[in-house]
Amino acid sequence: MLEIKNLTKRFGTRTIIDDLSMTVKDNEIMAIVGPSGAGKTTLLRCITGLESVNTGEFYWKGTKFDPTNTTQKDTIIGVVFQDYQLFPNLTVLGNITLAPTMVKKEPMTDVKKYARELLSRLGLEGKENLYPYQLSGGQKQRVAIVRALAMRPKILCYDEPTSALDPALRDEVAQIILDLKQQEMTQIVVTHDMDFAKNVADEIQQVKQIQ
Amino acid sequence: MIQYIQEILPALLSGTKMTLSIFFWTLICSIPLGALVGLGLIQKFKPLTWLLNFYVWIMRGTPLLLQLIFVFYGLPIIHIVFQRYDAAMFAFILNYTAYFGEIFRGGFQSVPKGQFESAKVLRLSYGQTIRKIVIPQVFKIVLPSIGNEVINLVKDSSLVYVIGLGDLLRAGNVATARDVTLLPLILVGIIYLALTAVCTIVLKLIEKRENVWR
Question: Which spans are transmembrane here (chain B) (predicted)?
């Protein structure tokens, strides 16, 4: 269970998130929705440690943690960015194996085995040696999901997973997210797409614009 | 004529050796140093960027010829004495590092911020991010500009002539003055053309190899 308590985030004098508390239960999908500019992505960036918070505490299974602490090798949070941000200079397999082998020092053979397993689970068999530019948008996204999963995070976060995809692929992403839930992955999805949120989420967190 | 060419060729080739020696050592030292300067130029620590910008300004803002003369003929006045060859190396490496530094700065800045963030959430350290993700992308971006400087360096190396080093241009000039014929200078031109042609081909091959990813 992830608990966020009294999170406040300001940029200068502008308050983006004001005293927000929320709980993400294990094995659930939480959707964060709201109009654009309301701070959904900022909230996600705070949870993933890309922004520091002004006030607020994070607890994982009752233990406090600091998302911005990058020296902690045991990753709690994995991220799939809106524009995926695959490393263009590395192959699909290179993208996936880089962090587990370099950060966690896991043996390459084990990491590759796990990567192949994840790739085939997401329908990406045979793409191991392609470079990101050779993939379609949907495939890139799935590689980004596999890359995040390879670090064995406790929670997987998505920033606007449907915004860059055509409508047909929207259902495909929903299916992937629901499949991962079957495998007991806790997930947070930031989206402006209310229908999509209702489709996948167990719980919906509204983020409102602060006047 | 063939006989005359055979006569002066050893002198020209020995000059070519000097030219190549300056060329290679400048590249080997200046490219890594330039990458470091470029990395320094994108840091947020202001005194460092001021210092590096000042250095780049001096090096790019004054003629390389002046820098050579300054190091070899100027510095001995304040008791800093370089051998001819060392003076040339010193001036060339300092000068080219500044150019490469600016090229690398542009390269580092054109790597999207998202790549750093993506690496950060994967818990890669700054060093690992630079080595595995940023440098390979920067290398590809800067390759054409580096190529330009490499070609320039082949020709710029002829400036060492002014501090009395026996490079290719000097060898040709000496022969022309002595024998009152254009042939040595034409040969010098041909050798420079051959050197830059080889550089161009090598650069093309490297670019082709880099094109496996986009």
Answer: 20-42, 54-75, 87-108, 182-206
Say which of B120, B132, B214 has its CB closest to residue A88: B214
The interface predicted TM-score (ipTM) is 0.91
Residues in A touching B118 (Cβ below 8 Å): 79, 81, 85-87
Cβ contact B15:B167 at 8 Å: yes
Using CB atoms, pick whichever of A75, A87, A102 lies closest to residue B115: A87
- What does B51-95 look like in DSSP terms, one character per residue? HHHHHHHHHHHS-HHHHHHIIIIIGGGGT----HHHHHHHHHHHH
CATH superfamily, region A1-76+153-210: P-loop containing nucleotide triphosphate hydrolases (3.40.50.300)
Q: What are the residue ranges spanned by the domains of chain A? A: 1-76+153-210, 87-152
Residue B99 is part of which domain span? 2-210
Is residue A162 within 8 A of residue A10, CB to CB? The reply is no
| Strand, coil or helix: A7 | strand
Residue A188: both structure tokens together = 């947070």
* Surface-to-core class of residue A73, CB atoms within 10 Å of its CB (0-12 exposed, 13-18 middle, 19+ buried): exposed
Instruction: Supply the CATH number for residue B106's domain.
Output: 1.10.3720.10
Q: Which residues pair with residue A189 across a beta bridge? A: A31, A158
pLDDT-based confidence at residue A101 (cuts at 50, 70, 90): very high
Residue from B140, B210, B213, B214 whose CB has the most chain A CBs within 10 Å, to mutate: B213
| Strand A29-33, strand A186-190: pairing | parallel
CB distance from B110 to chain A under 8 Å?
Answer: no
Instruction: Check CB contact of B45 with chain A, cutoff 8 Å.
Output: no
Q: How many domains does chain B have?
A: 1
Cross-strand pairs, A204: A31
On the question of pLDDT at B131 being above 80, the answer is yes
